[in-house]
Design brief:
single chain; 261 residues; alpha/beta; D-Maltodextrin-Binding Protein, domain 2; 10-stranded mixed sheet; 10 strands; globular
Length: 261
Amino acid sequence: MTLGNMFYGLSAVRARCALFGFLLIVVQAPAQSDDGGLTIVGSPVPGVFEADSPGPYADFFDDVIRRSGVPLNLVMMPTKRFTRALFDRTADCSYMGTNRMSYYHENGHDLEDFILTRPFNRIRMRAYTPARGPLIESEQDLAGKLIAADEGIAFSSIVATAVPFASSLLATPSVGEAFQLLGAGRVDVVFAYATDADLFFKISGQSGYQASQKYSLLEDNEVLVCWPSSAARKLIGHIDHAVSVLRASGDLKRRYGFEVR
C-alpha cells in the first residue's frame, strides 16, 4: 500500500458502504428523529477526518460536539452527496459548514434559513510546490501549471466559485496522493488546506514542500450548520460555549490546531 493510499484507507470505504445503506432509507423530509436526535452529515478527509479514526476534526467531534447531550448520528458521505444531503433535508446538520452567504444562494437557500455555530476554525487553502522551486505568490504564477488537489477541494462548489480555474484541477482521493504526484514530478503544484497539509507532513514524515504564507487561494470560516429546531439550538449553544472556553485557554489551537480570528 502506498503512503497516499494509507491516508485513504478502509475508513473511507466503510463510510461509502454506510452511505449506500443510508440512502436506501431516507426520504425527502427533515431528518430529525422522534427522540429529538439529529443526523449530522460529514465528508471524509483521509488522515484528517474519518469515522472512528483519530484526527483533529474527528477528535473535535468526539470531545465537543458529541458531548452536547443531544443524540447524534454522524453519517459520512463523499463531497457532492454531503452537500446535497443538507439542502435536501435528509440531514439536520453538516460538519463542517461555512458562513459564506454565496454558498447557500448557489444551493437555492438563504443563509438565514439555517442556524450556525460561531466559527471554530479559519482555514486557508495554499499552493504547494517542491522546496527547490519557486514559491507561488499570485494567480499569475499558476499560469500553465498542472495542479492536483484532493477530491474535497476539486469537487467543492465553494472552491469552484472562489477559484474559477479550479475546474482544471487533477482530483486525487487524498491529500497524500496529491503530494505523491508532486514529489514524482507529475504535477507542478498541489492545492491543499494548510491544516490538512501540515497533518500529512507530520504523519508521513515527508518534507521538501513549500507554500507562501502571504498568499492564500481561499480563506473560509468553519462552522457547524443546522436546520432550525430545538435540538439544533441546544447543540449549537453547547458548541459555542465549549469553543469559547477552549479558545480562552489556548486548547483550541493546542489540541486541534484550530484558529479563529
